[in-house]
Design brief:
The structure holds two protein chains of two kinds. By secondary structure, chain A is an alpha/beta fold. The mean pLDDT of chain A is about 95. Chain A is about 35% helix and about 15% strand. Chain A has an eight-stranded parallel beta sheet. In chain A, strand 4, helix 7 and strand 5 form a beta-alpha-beta unit. Chain B is built from 16 helices and twelve strands. In chain B, strands 5-6-1-7-8 form a five-stranded mixed beta sheet, with helices on both faces. The model of chain B has no long low-confidence stretch (mean pLDDT about 85). The chains are: A alpha/beta, B alpha+beta.
Chain lengths: ~270, ~400
């Protein structure tokens, strides 16, 4: 069995969902404040999505960090003020605030990546291209991974530029809708590849309702699409790999993340 | 079960609403205060005016001196009430438990247990905020917390803009470093007393035991002890459907503080309320009187009616009691509101003593006779002498 120099970690997008209690992922009566500790028993990484809603604050991040083992990692979603609700005059201040907020993770070496997820409305226009370039300059040193939600960014020039900047392009497993960024497995950074499994619920995706959008249960065959060919190649091109399941409805995400970990272990891609 | 309460707080609500009506008022100092009154005080002000040192209830004259550039607008409570209703309407699809403030831009939404339907509370809060911004043009501060007290403290903390999420279990850590005045529910007296002890931070009060607090605060100690620890089990009341109430308003042609004129108007209102209560076959257990002084300050007091009543005279007696409590200033009064609520079906139990019973029956018969005359010949056909006095 071949061994790979790549360290792959699998987790879920967020861990604090009340419905995961009902679904049995967390033991009954687990309090919200205890969910992260429970989560770390099964996973070695999580994607923080609350940092998108609320500007992270160092004391809160530090308290959260103290709940996890030292080798546990966090991928932090970039604040919405830099991706969805950009204020032309204020964004650099917001970037500085964000960097300050996640500082405890940087200092402890537990920041796996910063997820820069743009909305579908963020299309490839000259203005947005310039903004993205300036933003990535501002985020230098934070191991950014960029996720596009619009197909206009799926061009060679974008990949080449991300490669030049050694910034990861997020691969998405999502419904095959025409306007959406396509499912690709291009590795643009020798340091990191980053995959997000959103589920393939095409009807739910357009509903504007998160509970429908991310309601999807991957089949074993669909997970094999990644493990059989793509992941092996990707693992050969980067030192680290992050896989996150975002199909959180009814705790499908942690179930499939665990299934994915099993498949990767069988292939020797994960210890 | 851990609760999730969302709090929306539109900072400087009156100003925010006026700015929607007139876009030219954006980004400039603005004061909302009654015009045409020599002793008017500030009802609300914009952030720019606040930065100049203007505060609520400050005399308008002083406010004008502090910020001569500020535009002064007369308050429009009807507009604020409409805006509140619109705000409430935005939140109702997310929970049956939505509690709205009294025309002040505050809204609590209890999203406990709605996760499977609508997703995580923080996402609901963000969506709600986005909707309110798009549909109403308001930009509320929002917070998510395990109870109302923490949710309100959180929006106070980030005022005038922003958001704050207080996680379950973080109550004490969140509150400890805050100035004590940010803890909701503390009254001026509490703050003055704490200041006398040189306590300005929550952490200082947190260090005191209940017994310590009881020495200077007596009955208030329990509340203080729990408030600084972020303990609050008060429910989010299902608003939008406020408890049924009968409300009667009176605007004085000329502002007055003549007791006879006030009581005469009050009797008329009690009659009006009584008629409506009787028509609904209900009786009120609480009578409150709200007075709007000519400087814009409102004073509200209430009295209990035991047993519940729908009789004009008994209603009036309770209302007069509330009026006397509410009239604590020598200023003239512009507007008066009588609210009869905590409605119940009229008590069936008869009075114990024959004399009381006879009196009540007599009043009943008189009330019935007046109602009959009025329903047949019009409401102005018969008057009680008291209403003609002024």
């Amino acid at each position: 069995m071949p061994t790979y120099p790549c360290t792959i970690r699998v987790g879920t997008s967020g861990y604090s969902y009340a419905e995961w209690l009902d679904a049995g992922f967390y033991p009954p009566d687990t309090k919200p404040g205890e969910m992260l500790r429970q989560y770390t028993r099964q996973f070695s990484v999580t994607e923080l999505n609350y940092t998108w809603y609320q500007m992270p604050r160092a004391p809160a991040i530090e308290r959260m960090r103290q709940q996890v083992p030292p080798d546990f990692q966090f991928a932090a979603k970039l604040t919405r003020y830099l991706t969805h609700e950009i204020d032309a005059d204020q964004w650099r201040t917001h970037a500085a605030q964000y960097r300050d907020g996640i500082a405890p993770l940087i200092q402890s070496g537990q920041l796996a990546a910063v997820l820069v997820q743009f909305p579908p409305s963020f299309q490839r226009t000259p203005k947005n291209r310039h903004y993205l370039a300036a933003l990535l300059d501002e985020l230098r040193g934070l191991r950014a991974a960029v996720e596009f939600r619009h197909a206009s960014w799926a061009t060679e020039r974008v990949y080449v530029e991300l490669e030049r900047r050694q910034t990861a392009l997020v691969s998405v497993d999502a419904p095959g809708l025409k306007e959406l960024f396509p499912q690709l497995s291009i590795v643009t950074s020798p340091d990191l590849f980053y995959i997000r499994f959103h589920g393939r619920n095409a009807r739910g995706w357009r509903s504007g309702d998160m509970q429908k959008q991310f309601n999807y249960d991957y089949t074993e065959a669909e997970l094999h699409e990644w493990t059989d060919a793509k992941l092996e190649r990707m693992a050969g091109q980067a030192r680290n790999g992050l896989l996150f399941f975002n199909n959180h409805v009814r705790a499908q995400a942690p179930k499939k993340a665990l299934a994915m970990m099993r498949l990767l272990a069988e292939q020797g891609l994960m210890r | 079960m851990t609760r999730s309460i969302i709090h929306l707080n539109v900072a400087d609500f009156a100003v925010a609403v006026e700015r929607i009506v007139d876009r030219r008022l954006q980004n400039r100092p603005m004061i909302v205060a009654p015009l045409g009154s020599a002793r008017a005080v500030v009802y609300d002000m914009s952030e720019e005016a606040y930065q100049c040192g203007i505060r609520k209830h400050m005399p308008l004259r002083m406010a004008r001196r502090l910020c001569p550039d500020a535009s002064v607008l007369h308050p429009h409570p009807d507009r604020y009430e409409r805006a509140m209703r619109a705000l409430l309407k935005q939140a109702l699809p997310y929970s049956p438990l939505v509690e709205a403030g009294d025309g002040d831009g505050h809204l609590f939404v209890d999203t406990t247990g709605t996760g499977r339907l609508f997703g995580p509370p923080v996402d609901i809060a963000w969506r709600l905020h986005r909707q309110v911004k798009t549909d109403l043009g308001l930009d509320p501060i929002w917070s998510v917390a395990p109870n109302k007290l923490l949710a309100k403290a959180a929006t106070r903390l980030v005022k005038p803009v922003g958001e704050y999420v207080v996680g379950a279990g973080e109550e004490a850590v969140f509150l400890a470093p805050l100035p004590i005045r940010l803890v909701p529910g503390l009254e001026r007296d509490d703050l003055d007393r704490l200041k006398a002890f040189n306590f300005t931070r929550v952490s200082q009060v947190m260090a005191l035991s209940l017994e310590h607090l009881q020495v200077p605060f007596g009955n208030r100690a329990r509340f203080l002890y729990e408030a600084v620890r972020g303990i609050d089990s008060s429910p989010v009341l299902p608003a939008g459907r406020p408890g049924p109430a009968v409300i009667s308003d009176h605007d004085f042609d000329d502002d007055t503080n003549e007791p006879a004129a006030l009581e005469s108007a009050l009797y008329g209102m009690a009659e009006h309320a009584g008629r409506r209560l009787r028509r609904q076959r209900r009786a009120a257990r609480r009578i409150s009187v709200a007075l709007d002084y000519s400087d814009g300050i409102r004073s509200i007091r209430q009295a209990a009616a035991t047993p519940a009543t729908a009789h004009d005279l008994t209603l009036f007696k309770a209302a007069r009691q509330a009026l006397n409590l509410a009239r604590a200033r020598r200023l003239r009064i512009r507007h008066m509101r009588l609210t009869c609520d905590r409605l119940v079906f009229p008590p069936a139990q008869m009075a114990l003593f024959p004399e009381d019973r006879q009196n009540r029956e007599k009043q009943d018969r008189m009330g019935d006779a007046i109602d009959r005359v009025r329903s047949r010949f019009g409401k102005d056909m018969i008057h009680v002498g008291r209403t003609l006095a002024a």
